[in-house]
Design a protein that fits this description.
Blueprint: H1 2-14, H2 28-37, H3 42-58, H4 67-77, H5 81-94, H6 99-121
Length: about 120
């Protein structure tokens, strides 16, 4: 009797399991780990994120939180401030809870850019 009750409970609970994910991360975690382990793989991570985000946008899906910002940071590390600002803006627009941080990041990058332009004009 007790075994039957446990079996029924197990079957009922297994019906509650879902295999769908709220967000589609692609191979982000494995590529990120690989780039931490071997920094020469950072470019592969950047390309993978670009492709994944483009695919999500084409399918009218919202990228997971932080993915735009991660790509922006990769662009920034590669020396492309304008692309970083664009990605930080997309993160802010997609995830309003990130507005404060993304606005601060954008403002700092724009200030840095203005200072660099001012220094080259002198």
């Amino acid at each position: 009797m007790r075994l039957a009750a446990l079996l029924i409970l197990a079957i009922a609970l297994s019906g509650c399991v879902t295999t769908t994910r709220q967000y589609e991360w692609g191979d982000y975690d494995s590529k990120l780990y690989a780039s931490y382990k071997d920094p020469s793989k950072t470019e592969a991570l950047t390309i993978s994120l670009e492709n994944h985000i483009n695919q999500l946008e084409q399918n009218r899906m919202k990228p997971p939180p932080g993915l735009y910002a991660e790509l922006g940071t990769l662009y920034l590390q590669a020396g492309s401030q304008d692309k970083a600002i664009t990605m930080y803006g997309k993160e802010r627009d997609a995830w309003p809870e990130s507005k404060g941080l993304m606005d601060a990041m954008i403002k700092n990058l724009e200030r840095r850019k203005d200072l660099a332009e001012g220094n080259t004009k002198s």
